[in-house]
Structures are given as structure tokens and as C-alpha cells.
Amino acid sequence: MVEDQSTFETYFQAFRAPGEQEPILIPVVRHPILNELYVLWCDITTCFPRATRVQYTNIFVPMLKDDRLYRAKPHGIRHHPDIVLDVIYGDWVSSKVIKQKKRGVIRGTIGGDAIHTANDGESIGDTIDGEGGETLDMSDSASATTHHGADDTLPIDGDDILGVSDWTVQVEGRSVQASVQETNISSHSASIGDEDLGAVGVDGAVGEADVEVKVEVEVGGKVEDEVREKAEVEAEAKVETECSARAGSHTTPIQQPKSTTERSPETGHPLPATPEKEDVPKPSVALKPAAAKPATTEPPTTMSIHEDHLRIADVVANRVKDILNIQNSWWNSYPKYFCFLPVLATTTETTATGMTTSGDSLDKISDKTVFQLCNYCDCGDVASQKDPSHWTFGNSHTDVPQEHLASIIPLVGEFIVAVLEMIKYRVVAGDIIGLFPESTLDIHRRLSLAIRFFELKGVQSCEKYVRDNLAGSSSGMLDPVALPSQEQVHDFWRIIKRRSWMTHEMMPHRIEGGHIAWQCMLHWFPTSSTESERVLGELMDRTSKDIEYATETGAVISTVGTLKRAREVFRLVEALSITTILRMSLQWELTQDDEREIAKEIVKVSVAAIHITVQRASAVQDSTNTGLGYGLVPLVMAAFQNSKLDAFVLLAPTPDERHKNYISDERSYIVSSFESPPAGMVALISRRTGQDERVKAILRASDAALAVKSIRRIAQGFHNFSQLEFTRDCADMDITITFAAPGSGKPGCEVEDTDHNNRDIVSFFESRQWCDEIKCDFDVISDGAYSRLKCLTRLSMIFTLAQDRAKVREIIRMNRNLKTLLLYNVVHDDPSQIFEAFKSLLFNHPSIEMLRVEHSHYRMAPSMFTWSNPSDPAKMKVEMTCHGGDRLQAMFQRYAPQIEGLTLERPRPEDIAVLEKSSRLKKGPMALRRMAILWVNQMEESVRHDLKTIILRRDIGEVVVVGSAAAPTSGNREGETGSRLGDSRSKSVTRSSLDNRNKASSSGNISSTTACTVMADFVIAVRSKITMLTMCDGTHSKLFEELEQIEESLDMPRLVSISLAGGWDTTMFGCAWFEKLIKSKRPGPYVASSSGGMPGPTPSIQLENIARTSVITAFHLAQVAILPEEWDRLITYLDFSQLVNFDVFQTNAFNLRTLFKLADAIPVDCGRLAKFTVHDGRISKEHAYKALFERFRTKRIGKNVRILVRGMRFY
Q: Where is this chain compositionally biased, Low complexity type (predicted)?
């Protein structure tokens, strides 16, 4: 009997005997050593004299065991509250051998021979089939294993009512353990290295034990509980007799301690008593395993498995401490905790009468095992909820095949394993017990199998960490699991939704702090009020035409035609606590009084997001005076005032019916509206949750400059905003102000806008030391707009030198904190004249950092001329990306020494002649560090000659040569991009079409042979300086033949990037020159050859500085046939530890062995790798995918790395 000191309550265990209608209650006691509630076996036999066993739904309930899995004395069973246990009558059998004739048997001998199977030579346990898939067998209920060895197993931490009968006897410290197992037998067994689970069997070497029990069971069938019990009782009785004879009588007398028991506030179940301690302040969030720790009594053995179990639980607690603090926002359409559990196969048995009965679930994961997406409702976070959370499974048709998990594991694999272990080891946050699984028979078994499955896929687990003795001591801990990024979580749920693995029977419930808890209907109805149930019933009534409730998004959607009905909808929404989104369409012409009434309701409503569509969008005088000429200002201000509102979308009708917004998912629509404002947008407002609750607003303005000052006054200060943007449908000016966050470390970021009625906004930004960014985009500057802008930090505008010169000068003069000036020049003025027009102002400007002039071209990338640090002539640098139609002579004459980066596409001869003169050594040093020559084969001979001279004359760090071996044809460059240039500085460069309308020189019609000769001549001439070689069209073998004629063509010591795309009439190494080139780039010392064949002066110091050849870091091939033996040689030539980009598309099919070699060639630490892609237009089979995944999972791949093999993405 357990007594409570305040209420003296007694707890009972209910039993039902055969033939009895009503259950019989037996009082429970607390074990004197284990400190657990249990029922004495002698009390059971007193009430039921012929009782031999206790079971629940045909499952044996084992005796209470201690940490070593020995029967605890005094004997008894654990207390199972709210469950009626069945008492089974029978006879005590003392036969030494028990036999049961069935087909297909496994004989387990304890103390004798090892297990023999019905088919000789077949192994029992884990099997991994290299071709047909893998089988994971965990018939020992695969719980966490200690670090002592594979034979040590932990007690089940979930429900005590198990479908497995494991028992252990002890003879003077030597244990004999028999496990009746449901075993998967496979004729093909393969080792899986360090992660091999080991064969699951019975150890026959038991030393001096005299006990022998033989059990015959059906393979894959259901073991008779009575057979297990009789064998167990006989073995236990014999061992206890022997132990008593050797060690003397040391049985602990049966005691009935008086201890204090409290009832759990969540479940009403008794909690284990805890020893009295001094009062310690309780932390706000306590991480702990929910299972009670054993009493401090010293166990009989030196090592306790229960201690290791607690050790794993401690590691789990540290591992998941960040996960327990997750708080979902309204835009998260999923609960906090989710995982995958295997769907275990179930055996069937046909009886003599023809009836089919279900047997036990098989304890294994085979290659055909599917998984269920399991969600935990967040009901434990709801203050009014007392019951624990529970599983929510999808329907059977939403089961997840294992191959689909391959794309999920890289995204949230560690998170899923952490959740699985958090549930298995009952790690909870504070006093909210919201993570206990239901009392299902196989839940613990499925958890253990899932954890081991993800371990095999390369995901770290706490069990494996302890099992491999990585911790080293009890204080060793794994680092907490890094929470998945928003992008990773969104990608994961995008996969889930695409495959219809949806969250079922859960609704978002807004809780304290503005967070969202996904509450299940099972828990919501008992805690909801009658009014809430009535409102929900009304909203979900499909006969109502003007209002409905979407359960998956928690959105109330209504279309109202009167102000009275609008008020009623607001009342219904306020009464229903689970509402997160309100979407309302007002189908009448709003007056100003109507606007004020709607605004009052918006201020009071408690929802996360509001989406309102109105009919009236005409301007009124009050709105025009504020610069918000589209009206509806009261509604916008009400959204600012409601601190509970996270998002507000206000739309007006559009004259074009095609722009009407169709909304399938209200949550996604609101989120995407802030990325791309919808048609008819009047206002978009979002408020950040957490410590920084500032507002981001996008407002439709008629006068942006006036609206900035008006919103400052209406919102009572700029410090309430994180970003403020004003825009128009046909915008002549957009203004975006980004305010520095408090605590960001920027000087002045802590200053608040207290003088918000002052219309001088410049003084406010000065008080904040200009830590904020004010960006203005003009299409056309009106005559008076620019004069009111005095606080810009960034300006971009459409510009012509003749019309806008004075306006830009005035803007530069007034905005003393202007940092960036972007001018889109549509008439192709001379860029040097544009800079000279503002040169004096820029030299004296205190903060200007960059001036950029951009020219647009027909079907070509824009030309860009960028001056950085224009206020300091000594530090000023120039970047140029130019085409043949640009005016370049003055640029080269004036700024050649300051040019740091230069990209040229078919320049005119007179322009390059000026550049060649400016680059002569007597002109002094040049800052040129990067130079890209595009389409060498299309340039005139004089242009190519001058470029060779410039490249060889100056020490340029990066030289990119792009050309083609094909004869130029009209339009053959259309649509191509310059992404293969590989360098981020060249992203803006695209391959132009040959039929552009610029006045560029042409080399005339040439043949492909001539193109190859021209390209080869240029490459050979500048070979010592080339760092990147790109060929896009034509037959490369012709080019290689031209290069092979010159032996020195292989002397490319600086070459680090090769990109070849186009036609191949041979295999990759069918041309000896290309193989020699790649072979020469192998790691190792390299001595550059003489500069024979190079035109122009070549200072010897340039070649002497090259001590060794540079290895290939970027390798791109396309439309080429590669033989397996060529792959073998290529792998030896490349240094995969230095590769950054590897991209190959071959025309012939890949050999599977080649793919394996490529995967093995990537080093374990591949920190430099950014992209690895190989493809042949085909898809690998499932077994190949699994084998490749096993190889790639051992690599330590960094973030944002893309690995794609035959269309299968691994990272």
C-alpha cells in the first residue's frame, strides 16, 4: 500500500481472472530498492491460488527486474495504471526439455550447442545484400546498447508490456540469457564494417551453468506464451536453488515502505517518490529524462546497465536542448516535432479451421520496408491542455518508400534522429510531459529500428555515440543538434506536400507569445468552450455561403456585403481561439465612416494575419495630403497599432480582370506577397516575433517623399520599423529605408525616434550617425522630386547626360551620405564624359563609394563601367565589361592605369590600339588583375595581336580565354550565358549573338578550320598566362590537332580551369594532346619551359615566379564520349582534394564501377568542393543509388554543396 501524507490515497492494480465478470483490485507497494510501484507476486497468488502468469491482450507481463535484468526480490510485476491485467491459471511444469511440433523450427540451446536453423549454412541476424538491398534485423527489441559490447542490451524504456520474452539467470556472476526471436533468415550476408549490427543469436558459451532449455518455435511465427513461461519458471527455480545453496540465505524480506506518492497533474497517475532534498530553485526549462532514477542503494554488480541508460538519456538531453525550445510561427504549416517510423511486416497463421490470424510484427527493416511520417501534436504547449501529446499518422497510402528518404536525410536527418531519441528516452522540457508515446505494443521497437536505420545512413545518434565509447566519460556530450535552416525545413515540407504526406487532424492554435501550437481535435474539443465548439460548427458548415474555415491553415475565409456582417465575422473569429488567419472580402463601397469602424475591429482582433480586399480605392483629400493617395489610411494605421498582428495584407481591385488573385493556400499567399507584391497592393505589413518586434511595411504611395514624413508621424517614430518601402504601380520613384537593428553594433542603432512630429527627417538620420540605408530608384526624375531628397545613401536612376546632368549633380551635392550611385544610360554616352561631369563633386564627397554607368544592348549583356572609391584618386579602381559598340578610347586613355578588371567582347581595332599604347612599360604600372577575352576567333587579326602583346607584357593574375572551333553563323550565340566562366566577377558576361546591332568589326566569313587555326595560334601565344580556357562550339579534335603541332602548347603552368562544350568526333582522350595537358596538371613540381613562340617582350621574372604548376580546380566537359579506361586515367590525373567544380556530361552510358571510383576519389574532407555533377542522360537503379549513397555519406560535405550523379541528388 502506498500512502500519501496529505490524502492517504491507496493505489490499486486491477486483475481479471477467468470466469470473473468484475476486476479484482490488489493494492500496489513501492519496491524497497528499485523505488518503483509494483504488485507483490505473493499477493497475486493469494487472491488467485492457481495463477501462473499475468498477461495483457495475450502479451506476457514480465516480472519486475533490476538494472541487470535479474528478477527483483521481493518478486512482483510493475504497476500498470488504468489497465486491467488478465490472470492465467496453469500447472507448474518441471520438465527439462519442452517441445512443440511446428513446421520450420529454430532450436535454441542454452548451455549447449549454438542455435541451428532448419536450413544449414544460413546465418541469423543482420544481412545486407549488396545488390538487392539491405535488411536490418532487431528482434531483440533493439534498444540502446551500452559501450561494453554488442551482447549488452538495455531494458526497454517504453511500455513494460512487450511482445518479446527475454530472460536472464545468474550463477555466481555468470549470466545465461535466452532470447526467443523472430529472425529474418537470408542466404546472402555481407559485412557492413564498423556499423555492422552483429548476428543476433544466443551465446552458447555459458561457463559452468547447469541449465539447459531447448525451445522449438516456428520461424517468423508466433511463440506460445505458455511455453515461454514454463521454460522460464523452471530455469529460474533451478538457478535460485543453486544460488541459495552456495551463497546462503540472503533474500530480502518483503517490506511495505511508507512513502509519499504524488499524482501527476497531467495524467493523474502516481509519480515515483523522490528522496528529500534541500529546496533548489527550479529553472525555467529543465532538460531531464522523464523516467525516475533508481534509488541510491548500491546494486550487487559493479556495472549497472541502467546507469548507462541514464547516461544515454543525459547525452540525448544535451543533444536536443535547442530542439525543445522551438517555437513555431503562423507561417509554419507543420508541428514542431516530426519523424519517420518503419511500418513493420506482420506474420499470419492459418489454423486448422481455415481462419487466418495475425501474429507478431517482424523485428526487421528490409529493403521493402516503408516508413510512416509521424507528427506529434503540440498540445503540451497549450496552457489549458492537461493530457500528453500523441502520435498522428497519415493513411496507409501515404507510406514513404526508403528511396524517397534519401533526399530527406540531408535536409533534416539529424533533427529526425534527435526527435526519435528524445521520444524514446523521454526527454522533456520542464514539467510539460508532451512527448510520451501511446501505450502501443510495438512503439518502442519501431523507435529503436528507426534510429538504427538512420545510423546506417550516416546520421549520428546518441546511442551510437555511447556504444562506440566516443564520450570517454560520463561527462562526455555530443554537441547540440543544429536546428535546420528555414530553407531546409521548407524544402523538406515541400517534398512532403508534393507526395501528399500531409499533416492530418491537427489545427493551428495560437498560444501565448504569438506562437502557434498544432493541436489535435482529440485534445481541442475537451478543452474548448461551448462557444468555441458552436463557432467551429458554424464555420465548418458547408451550407454557409459567405464564411468557411480551412483547418489546414487555421484560416477563416469570408465574403461580406455589409458592415453589420463584417462585425459579426470579427466576433466569430475572436471567439475561436484556433483562428490564425482572417481573410475578408468587403463587397461594398466603403465610406470614411466604414473605414473607421473596420479599423476598430482590426485593432481588437487576436489573429496572426489578416488579408482584406476592399472595393473602394479612390483617393480622398486626407490621404492625398499624407502622400498615400489611394486611401484606406485608417485600416493601415490600425494594423500598425495591433501588436498581436504578425502580417497584414490590404488589396484594392484592379481594373484588369486578369490580375484577380486566385488563392489556394492562404498562408503561402501572404508569405509570397512580401516577396512579390500582388496586383492592387495597398499595404503589406509584417511584424517580427521575438525580441525584435519591429514592423516591415510596403505601402502604395502617390508621393513617396511626402509619405515618408507622414508615416513617421502616424506610426509615432521610425524606430518601430525594420524596413519601410514606398512604391507605385507606374513608379517614377520608389523609396526603401532599411533601419539598423538595435544591438547590431552599428553606431547610432540604439537611438529612438522621439521627435517624430518634426518634419525634418535628416536630423533623425544624423542622430543615428547614418547607420540606416535609404535607397531611391527613379525611372524618370521629375523637376521637383529630387529637390526634396536629402538623406539618400543609394540612388539608381535612368539617365542621359544631356537631360539629367544638373539633377544628378544637385542630388550628389545635397546627399552628403550617398554611398552608391547607379546610372542606367540608355543613349550610350561616353562613360568617361559621364564620370568627368561629376568628377569634382565626387572627389570632394565625404562618403561616396561607387559610381556605376550601365549601357543596355540588344540581345546582349549590358556593358558596365564601375569606379570604386572615386573620392580618393590614389585608391580609385575601374572595372569594365564592354562590347564593340561602346566608346572605349577615352576610357583607355584616361583610366588605363586604374583598370583592375577588363572583359572584352569583339572590341574595335582602334580601341585596342589605344589600350596597347597605354599598357606600355614606360607608361608606368597598371592595376590590371583580371582580363577576359571573349570569342577570340571572331576578332580581327590586329585586335588579337595587340591583345597578345598586352597579356604578355603585363603580369595579369587571371586571364580567361573564351572561343570556339566552329565557323560563326548568324544567331549562334542567342540564349547562351556566360555561367561557364566560373568566376563570380564574370557572371554578368554572356555570349552575344553575332547579329547584334552594334557597330562592331567583323572578321568576315571564315571556315571552321580557320577558326581552329586562329584559336590555336592565340592560345599558344599566351599559354603561359592563361588561367581559364573555355571552348563552346565546334569540333575540339581539330583544335587539339592544331595545338599538338606545337610542343610548347602544353606549357600552361597557370591553367586551373578547363571548360569544353560542343562537338567531339573522338572520345575524351582520343586526341593525345588533351590527355597530355591534363596529365601535366597533376600535383607536383613543374619547371616552366622557355617562352619560345611567344610574340612580344616577356620579362623572365614572370616565368621564374612560377615554381610549380597549378592544379586543375574547375573541370567541365559536355557532349563527349568517355571510355571506362579513360575515366581511370582521368581520376589519377586530377587532384580531387583541390577541385571546386567538377561537371561532366557524357554521351555514352556510365559504367557503375566508374561511378563508384569517382565517389571514392572524393576525399573525406572535401571542404573546397562546391559542385560535383556527372550525368549521361540515364537514371541508375535503386541498388546503385544505395551503394553510391553509402559512399557519399562518409564524406564531410560542407553547406551549399551540390552533388548530382545521374540526376540523383545526394547533397
A: 288-302
H/E element holding 275?
Answer: none
Minimum mean pLDDT range among 651-660, 1012-1021, 1101-1110 = 1101-1110
Distance, CA of 461 to CA of 195 (rounded, Å)? 12
- The neighbour count for residue 354, using CB atoms within 10 Å, is 6
* CA distance to 755, 1013, 1081, 1107, 1114, per residue, from 1076 (Å): 74, 20, 9, 20, 17
Nearest to 1043 by CA among 1067, 1075, 1003: 1075
Sign of the Cα pseudo-torsion (313, 314, 318, 324, in order): positive
- Host H or E run for residue 824: strand 820-825
Q: Measured between alpha carbons, how far is residue 293 from residues 72, 148, 265 in Å? A: 16, 21, 20
Confidence at 392, pLDDT banded by 50, 70, 90: low
Q: Are strands 127-129 and 356-361 parallel, antiparallel or unpaired?
A: unpaired
SS3 assignment, position 509: strand
CATH architecture of 873-1114: Alpha-Beta Horseshoe (3.80)
> How many Å apart are CA 665 and CA 555, to the nearest integer?
9
Distances (CA, A) of 107 to 151, 170, 547: 20, 22, 68
How far apart are the C-alpha atoms of 735 and 701, rounded to whole Å?
10
Distance between CA atoms of residues 738 and 751, nearest Å: 15
Report d(CA 186, CA 1004) in Å as an integer: 72
Rounded distance, CA 761 to CA 283, Å? 46
Tell me how far apart the alpha carbons of residues 475 and 991 are, in angstroms, rounded to a whole number.
Answer: 60
| Contact indicator for 233, 92 with CB cutoff of 8 Å | yes
What H or E segment, with its residue span, contains residue 642?
A: none
Using only C-alpha atoms, the chain has a radius of gyration, in whole angstroms, of 39
Tell me the CA distances in angstroms from 1058 to 8, 729, 1152, 1163, 1204, one per residue in order. 84, 46, 25, 21, 20
**936, 1014 in Cβ contact below 8 A?**
yes
What are the angstrom distances between the C-alpha of 1171 and each of 369, 488, 1136, 1198, 1211? 32, 18, 12, 11, 10
DSSP-assigned states of every residue in 34-87: T--EEEEHHHHHHHSTTEEEEEETTEE-PPPB-TTSPBPSS-EEE--TT-EEEE
Report the C-alpha gap between 640 and 642 in whole angstroms: 6
Largest CA distance in the chain: 115
Matching residue, cell 516530426:
338
Strands 51-56 and 84-89: antiparallel
Torsion of CA 186, 188, 194, 195, to 10 degrees: -40
* Alpha carbon distance 1150, 1178 (integer Å): 9
Q: Give the strand order in the sheet containing 127-129.
A: 127-129, 133-137, 364-365
- Report domain extents, the chain: 105-232, 305-498, 506-742, 873-1114
Q: What phi and psi, each to the nearest 5 degrees, are found at residue 260?
A: -90, 130
Q: Residue 539 is placed in which grid cell? A: 464555420
Distances (CA, A) of 782 to 84, 671, 779, 807: 85, 34, 9, 9
User: Residue 624: what pLDDT?
Assistant: 60
Residue 136: name the closest of 506, 402, 417 by CA. Answer: 402
Cell numbers that stand for 744 in this block: 547590431
Cβ burial of 682 (10 Å; 0-12, 13-18, 19+) is buried
Residue-wise pLDDT for 1132-1158, tens only, equals 999 998 999 999 999 999 988 999 999
Distance CA 120, CA 61 (A): 34
| Residues 228-243: tens digit of each pLDDT | 444 444 444 443 444 3
Q: Is 169 exposed, middle or buried (0-12, 13-18, 19+ CB in 10 A)?
A: buried
Exposed (0-12), middle (13-18) or buried (19+): which is 826, by Cβ within 10 Å? exposed
Three-state secondary structure readout of 139-163: CCCCCCECCCCCCCECCCCCCCCCC
